[in-house]
Amino acid sequence: MNRPARRRSSKQQQQQQQEQSSATATPSSSAQPNNNSNTMDGAHRKIELQSPEDLTYLITNVRRAAAEHLSEAFPPVEGDDAGEDELRVRIEQIVDEYISQTFTLAAPNLCINGFDLDAKTFPAVYLASPNNNNNNTHAAPEEIVQFEPFDARKRARVEELAREEEDLMREIATLKKTVPAATAKQYAETFWSGLQGDQEGFEAAKVSVVGGEEEEEEEVVETEKEKEEQEQEEEEGEKKTTKKTKKKKNKRVLLEDLGQVERQEDVEKGYRGVVETLGRLKREMPATVARMERARVAGEYVLTER
């Protein structure tokens, strides 16, 4: 691979530098008296970009294309003889200045998302040197504040929302004053109505129970009255029969139609046995109760001793 000749005469280098410096000086000298001509007329639209990243992308592409052309014209030298090419470095500086000057002059004719570029912040933000960018890759990006143009409709919308907020705040304040008292009143009414209903239900149940007891007592009284009436009737009947028997001089007379009752002897024996059993129970009951009481006392004594 043929390496390009790095050693050049000082005269050739001086001539090339003079030519390049004159080439870069001519556009700047022609641009100074025509600053107003760089701005486009009102009839022409500006170059519109959607975001600042678009402008950064354009500048980066231009610089990359310039770096590629420089690499083709001045390829890097490899090997032990590799060193910094002063001519290449100088040309890179000149090209970088040319690119920065070009975009600086074009800035008045550019707009990003409807906003014009600020001449004070534009060179520092978008046209920073790539060498400085490489050295400050971890530096925090500078915050850019952009102001939207005044819009009367949005201003009216803001005022409407502010009035709506005030109305809502007044409504909330009114609710804070009225809702707690109304809620407490409603709760108290519900509580007392429920308590009154429970009391009425209790009274109704009580009346029904008392009424049932009174009815039972009335039924008992009626049954007792009926028994008394029956006893009175029986006594009257017995009196009548005794009178009749006395008149007949205690003579037993069987009715001719009925005759003698069947199993009369067995009935009489059973009746006599029942009467005797009741009499025996009546006699033995006190003794049995006394024995049970003594047994209960003895059991309690044994349990307490244990």
TrEMBL record:
Check the record and name the Pfam families matching this protein: Mis14
Q: Where is the composition biased (Basic residues)?
A: 1-10, 241-251
Residue ranges, annotated region (Disordered): 1-49, 208-251
UniProt biased composition (Low complexity): 11-39
Question: One biological-process term from Gene Ontology?
Answer: mitotic sister chromatid segregation
GO cellular component annotations of the record: MIS12/MIND type complex
Which residue ranges have biased composition labelled Acidic residues? 212-221
Q: Which PANTHER family match?
A: KINETOCHORE-ASSOCIATED PROTEIN NSL1 HOMOLOG
Name listed for the protein in its UniProt record: Kinetochore protein mis14
Identify the taxonomic lineage of the organism of origin.
Answer: Eukaryota, Fungi, Dikarya, Ascomycota, Pezizomycotina
